[in-house]
Specification:
single chain; alpha+beta; 22% helix; PLATZ; PLATZ transcription factor family protein
Length: 204
C-alpha cells in the first residue's frame, strides 16, 4: 500500500479547512485554506504561507457546495489522479477531496463510483480522492504514485474514460475543436455567393 499512496495524502484528506487563523485572525485573508505537502500538518492561511512555508510544495483548497475541492492544475503533478471524476467550476477544472453523501442513484445513471456508488457524469471510477484511496486499501488495483513499481491492473474502461474526459475538457474549455461536422450549413451571418441573375424574356 505504501508503494501506491504517498504519505502526504491521508493527512490532506483528514485536515479541516476554512477555520480562522489563530495568529492572523484580524487580517483580511485569515481563512485557513492552504495545505503544505512537505509539512503534512494543519491547514494555514495566506499569511502563514509566506512566513512558515516558503519554497514548500503547497496548494489552495476551495469550496464547492460545502465540500472541499482542489484545482487539477495544482495536484496533477503531485498525485496520479487518473480515474477520479473532475468538474469545471468557475472556469477551473477541480476534483473533490472526499466522498460526498448522496441518495440512491436513480434510473438511467450509467456511471457510478466504485466505492460509494455516487453517480458520475463521465465514465470515471471514483468520485473523489478519498474514494480512490479506499479502493487502493481494499483491492490495490489503483495508484496515486506515478510510475509505481507495483503491477496495477487497470481495466480498459478507465483508459477509455481518460480519453473521453480529455476531449470533453477541450470542448468545455472552448478550444478550437469543431463541434459540428463540416457538412452542416454555414452560420446565418456568413456571406453566400449569389448565382447569375436571369431576366424573364420580353413579351413580343
Amino acid at each position: 500500500e505504501s508503494m501506491l499512496v504517498p504519505p502526504c495524502l491521508e493527512p490532506l484528506l483528514s485536515t479541516a479547512f476554512f477555520s480562522v487563523c489563530r495568529t492572523h485572525g484580524d487580517a483580511a485573508r485569515s481563512e485557513c485554506n492552504m495545505y503544505c505537502l512537505d509539512c503534512s500538518g494543519d491547514a494555514f492561511c495566506f499569511y502563514c504561507r509566506s512566513s512558515r512555508h516558503k519554497d514548500h510544495q503547497e496548494m489552495q483548497i476551495r469550496r464547492s457546495s460545502y465540500h472541499d475541492v482542489v484545482r487539477v492544475a495544482e495536484i496533477e503533478n503531485v498525485l496520479d489522479i487518473s480515474g477520479v471524476q473532475t468538474y469545471v467550476i468557475n472556469s477551473a477544472r477541480v476534483l473533490f477531496l472526499n466522498e460526498r453523501p448522496q441518495p440512491k442513484s436513480g434510473k438511467g445513471v450509467s456511471h457510478n463510483c466504485e466505492v460509494c456508488g455516487r453517480s458520475l457524469l463521465d465514465p470515471f471510477r471514483f468520485c473523489s480522492l478519498g474514494c480512490k484511496l479506499v479502493r487502493i486499501k481494499r483491492k490495490g488495483d489503483a495508484t496515486f504514485i506515478f510510475g509505481s513499481n507495483n503491477e496495477v491492473t487497470m481495466d480498459r474502461g478507465e483508459g477509455m474514460s481518460r480519453k473521453i474526459s480529455k476531449e470533453e475538457e477541450q470542448l468545455r474549455e472552448g478550444t478550437q475543436h469543431q463541434i459540428y461536422p463540416s457538412t452542416h450549413s454555414p452560420p446565418p451571418n456568413s456571406r453566400r455567393r449569389k448565382g447569375i441573375p436571369h431576366r424573364a424574356p420580353f413579351g413580343s
